[in-house]
Design brief:
CATH class: Alpha Beta
Largest sheet: 4 strands, mixed
Strand order of the largest sheet: 3-2-1-4
Helix content: 40-55%
CATH architecture: 2-Layer Sandwich
Number of strands: 4
Number of helices: 4
Number of domains: 1
Strand content: 15-25%
Shape: globular
Order of helices and strands: HEEEHHEH
Length: 120
């Protein structure tokens, strides 16, 4: 079993537990260059989304090096996705880290979302 398969297995376990609870989830995906966040309802409809690829996020990160693949970008994406979720009427979510370790960019996104008003 390689690194990617292990991560996907961990992600499946997390999503199974969240589905059992019938909770709205904040799903995170990261690549070397960017980070993505989606708020997904129990019936699999996407309620809010944000990524480091969006124009307004890229404008705010314009003067920095690394653009979308750093903690600053993750913090900004977490804040923006929380604002969009609150606007859609979502206040409580389950955090789905998709098998990624809870540190670095994933942790920065989660903490920014909490500070912006989402409850996990």
């Amino acid at each position: 079993m390689n690194k990617k398969e292990s991560r996907l297995r961990r992600g499946r376990q997390t999503r199974a537990k969240i589905a059992e609870l019938k909770a709205t989830r904040l799903s995170v995906h990261r690549t070397n260059m960017h980070i993505y966040a989606n708020v997904i309802a129990p019936d699999a409809t996407i309620l809010a989304t944000c990524s480091s690829l969006e124009a307004e996020v890229r404008q705010e990160l314009a003067g920095q090096t690394g653009k979308g693949g750093n903690v600053a970008a993750a913090t900004l994406v977490g804040k923006k996705v929380a604002e969009k979720a609150l606007k859609a009427g979502i206040t409580e979510v389950a955090f789905d880290r998709s098998g990624f370790r809870y540190h670095g960019r994933v942790k920065a996104l989660a903490e920014a979302a909490r500070e912006a008003g989402l409850k996990f």
